[in-house]
Amino acid sequence: MSDLPELWKKLSEGESKSLLKKHCTKEVYEKLKDKKSKLGGTLADCIRSGALNLNSGVGVYACDPEGYEVFKELLDPVIMDYHKVDKVEHPPCDFGPQDKLGFDPLDATGEFIVSTRVRVGRSHEGYPFPPVSTDEQRKDMENKTIAALNTLEGELKGKYYSLETMTPEENQQLIDDHFMFKNDDKMLGDAGGYNGWPKARGIFFNDNKTFLCWINEEDHLRFISMQKGGDVGEVYKRLVSAIKQLEKKLTFAYSKRHGYLTFCPTNLGTTLRASVHIKVPKLAKNEEVLNKICADNKLQPRGIHGEHTESVGGVYDISNKRRLGLTEYQAMQEMYNGIKEIIQAEKNAK
Ligand code: CIR
Fold this sequence. Notes:
The chain is of the alpha+beta class. It has 13 helices and ten strands. It has helices at residues 4-13, 19-23, 26-32, 43-52, 67-70, 72-83, 135-149, 168-176, 186-190, 232-246, 281-284, 287-296, 328-348; strands at residues 113-122, 158-162, 202-206, 211-215, 221-228, 254-255, 259-260, 273-279, 299-302, 315-320. Strand 4 (211-215) and strand 5 form a beta hairpin. Citrulline binds at residues 49, 56-59, 187, 264, 266, 307.
């Protein structure tokens, strides 16, 4: 039997500041409660995490790519509210002119930027998201992805490391080096993100560990390009080159309205998060100024151990906040220009 009535009771009777609580009104609930997507996704799959975790900021995940339309009376308002747009629409993918991106090194002396990372999420077309996915489907997706990744050449050529077979020591080393994902996010776990863990999970990386792919973490696929220092252009170009090669082998879930479809509605559109680990000890003493620059430039500051963590030693993880309603190139430019301003402010600070 579905756990939907119980989830609804928790949500409707509980106190919560989440977007789920705000937009899942009784009327919306009544309209959607008996709907089902072709892959079997239900409203319960979309609201489970937020109903079980009233401290969620968003609280909603999609059950599968089609869920964004089947449950749009809930998802559209959540998307518009989170992404601060008044319509769910998205321009076609545009990575910008790769030969003249205009991303000159931001920090030539290496004083501020510790490392740079750009990631995108992708979903396999025709497969559900974690709460609806079976172990078999996850395995299928893993195999498909490995086959595609194994065709990469040159700098991107690498190897797949399965979470099922790596030793705990290898796993810990990869976590410590900020390469590997973990299963410690309760909200994601309650959304079904760790179902069947560690089956069909793993990580692919090239010899230099500058290109990585996570398989069956929050999204079916996360492509990541990263390296030490602040050469944003080099990091971005590597990622774009990988995506272009991989999309010849794999078909990704995409909608004209939403762009690339991801499990969490916060990542829709470009799905792009471009971040730096940046050392700004002076601004760290005055977080108000830092937060204002971030807000003005549509950037999101986090601690370096991921979302909802504190800064350590004046080092922050700062990234673009907007992912929907702009192109990949524009999202990159927002991050680049904002970080430039932060470095200037740190230089000017007493
Ligand atoms: C929340 O609602 O607060 C969580 N479900 C996280 C939302 C955004 N973060 C994410 O997807 N990693």
